[in-house]
Structures are given as structure tokens and as C-alpha cells.
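Now for a specimen:

…
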Amino acid sequence: MDIKNITVAGGGVLGSQIALQSAYKGFNVTLWLRSEGSIERTRPKLERLRGIYVQTLEALKTDPSAFCRGLTDSPDTPPERIDELIANVGRAFDSLVLTTDKQQAFGSADLVIEAIAEVIDEKDAFYTSIKDLLPQHTILCTNSSTLLPSAMMGFTGRPDRFLALHFANNIWKNNTAEVMGTAETSPEAYDTVVQFAHAIGMIPLELKKEQPGYLLNSMLVPFLNAAEALLANDVADVETIDKAWMLGTGAPLGPFRILDIVGLTTAYNIVAASPAAQEPGSTAARIAAMLKERIDAGHTGINAGEGFYKY
């Protein structure tokens, strides 16, 4: 694998995580953001993640249950090695380059991971704007949660080097990476992305064919939609719905805590794109309106300090 320079497009919930994790594992990482305002909104996310990495590693010195697969290889990591890893977190954070300059971001990238909004027109505009800046060898991945790469590959100018690389949230702990190509993706590009996922501490989950929602979100999105429908239809409040799931299954988090972590903007974009959301009075339309009201108030999830819950 000849991958050294990584560019992550988008500094949202997952974009910021992908960037810091890749830098932590030794890659040169550039974060491309749309504006100076986006850069300023991304910095606190990265600072928060740095704190989580350091606190988790410090806790591992005395508590093996703090072990996270994306941060170290074993819960029995010696304290002196943990100190080295903590220092590496600082180096990784300091090495990140945040820029709005597309030539700087994409002109020497070996691998680009797109993590922008879950809106097909925005992805079309983005890929079209960078395709002539990318070196010929660059592999381009989408971290889209639900959109198929085949629906976007025509925008990229490199369908043979375009595929999906989808991460679960909290990637230092839930370290999966779903790898999904199209009929046009070359085996070499696919294998390189699998190797890259290994190199940043992920467990690659290789899909045999395209599937909307991939593996994780094929299961997660219907679950979250069901919870949102209960709230939108006034069946119960947020806390009661979460309590029902947690007490009934033993899960540590309910659906609305999960939505706050995922980010309400992503949840909104997914439901708003559905045909059912275009029907006035439908449950999907009510869910979209409920999410939009919170988003407009700035309550977009845990990174904003408030979503369905306050943090």
C-alpha cells in the first residue's frame, strides 16, 4: 500500500474522527472545509476528540475495561507504552492541516475520504469541483451513510478508483470500516482501501455487493426511524422511549442518545430525502419537521452541546 497523504473532506462528526484517527496512526492528514467558519467549528470537535483519546489512554493504565481497539492493541499495554501513545495523540493533533484551499487539500492526496452532507447534489458539486485537481493515482472514497457509490461515481471522473468507506461513530472504540465498491471499482483500489482501514486500526467489513445503508445502517436507520416515529406521533416522550429500549434490551444507550451522537443534521438529510417525507401529514414529514425545528435552534447533537438531550 503506497498511501501516505490523506485528505478528509468535511469536519463533521465523522470527518473529524477520521482525520484524527488517521493522523494518530501516522498518516499525513489534511482536512478540507468549505469556509473559515467551518474551520472554526471543526477545531473544537478535534480538541474534544484529543481529550477523549488522552483520557481513555490514561484510564487504561489502571482499568483494562478502558481498552479501545482503535487506540492500542491490547488491554495489557504497559504504562510506558501508553505514555508514548498519549504523546502521539498530541503529535497527531498538531500535525492536522485545516484548509479551504482545494489545490492544497487535493493536489497531492493519495486517498480522499469525502464526509460532507448526505445530499446527492452537494456531493455532485463537490466531486465535480475536485476531479481535475486530483493526481491520477488518487483513490476517492465516500463515507456516505446511505447513498450508493454507483449513484455518485459518474461525478468523480475515476469510477475505477471510487468506492465507499463507511465508519461507525466513535471510531477509536467502534472500529469498523465497511468497504463497498461498485461494478466499476478496480480490485486494486478495493484492496488498497481494505489495507488502509487495517492501517488506521479499523476492522474492515468487506461487502460483496452494493447495499443501501451498507451493513450497519441497514439495521440502525430503521431502528432510529421507528423511535423518531414514536416521538413524532406523540406516543411517548424522548426519555420514555429511550428507557424502553435500554431496560428492555440492556443496551447502554437509547435511540435518541444515539441520534445526538450521529448528529441531527445527518438524520434529517436521510429522512428528508425519502419520498414519504414529501407527503404532507405523513409520519416521515412530521419526523423531518421535528428534526428541522431542533436544527434551526442550533440543537444538532452532542457536538453542539444539545440535541434531544443537553450535554
In short: The longest strand covers residues 162-167. The mean pLDDT is 96. The beta strands are 5-9, 28-32, 97-99, 111-114, 139-142, 162-167, 176-180, 203-206. The two ends are 41 Å apart (CA to CA).
